[in-house]
Amino acid sequence: MKKRKLLWDLLPAMVLWLMLSVFFWGWIFTFLTDTEPENKLTVFADAAIPDPTALAVRLEQEVLGGQIRMVKAHPFTYAMLSSEGLRRSDVYIVRESHLEEYREWFAPLPEAFAAAWPAVRLWQPEGVPMGVLIWDAETGKGAAQTYITYSDPALADEDCYLLFGAASPHLTGNPGSVDDAALQLAETLLSLP
Fold first, then answer.
1. Residues near 152 by Cβ (< 8 Å), separated by ≥ 6?
2. What average pLDDT score do residues 18-35 get?
3. What's the CA gap between 52 and 143, in Å, rounded?
């Protein structure tokens, strides 16, 4: 009887120990398998990505080379615990209603990129081109529909824009920039079915 009581008394401590162990080993695994920001490209989408691995693999097929060893694709909900990874993303896909909320995270569109997509509608706050339309809610057409679910029954359908990160190390003009791989990533995203 005393052994059973002792077990029940220790149960909260054992559960806490188990939880801490899982978080610790998860952190260790991430630390060992993740790569430096200069060697990976990150896409965050303000939309559902049913299979982020499939999108990352598809993008890696087109973009890998040079210093880039990894591409990651995540929905915004992935960054619930910390927005730091979200802030340092290379490319964003953001709903029109959230553009102003995250505006400080975006870099102006490079002129060459904006010129390469003249038929695409731009988001231009105060006349500065910042984003490229990637999903037109009115027509239901857009890029990367095979990988990204733009329409959500819980939300009103709205346009989505592709934007570059102001803290991206893969966009010339940003502090600490090492290459222009974010441009290639964005062009690949815009050309996906």
1. 47, 48
2. 82
3. 15
Burial class (CB in 10 A: 0-12, 13-18, 19+), 150: buried
Which range, of 46-50, 91-95, 162-166, averages the lowest pLDDT? 46-50
Looking at residue 113, its pLDDT comes to: 87
Backbone angles phi and psi of 123, in degrees to 5: -95, 120
* The pLDDT of residue 78 is above 70: no
Tokens of 177: 């920039």
- Give the pairing type, strands 141-142 and 131-136: antiparallel
* CB of 73 closer than 8 Å to CB of 45: yes
Q: Give the closest residue to 137 by CA, choosing from 192, 109, 96, 92.
A: 96
Q: How many residues does the chain have?
A: 193
Where exactly are the structural domains of the chain?
A: 1-33, 36-191
Could you say which of 2.60.40, 3.40.190, 1.10.10, 3.40.50 is the CATH number of the domain covering 36-191? 3.40.190
Kindly state the average pLDDT of the residues 135-157.
88
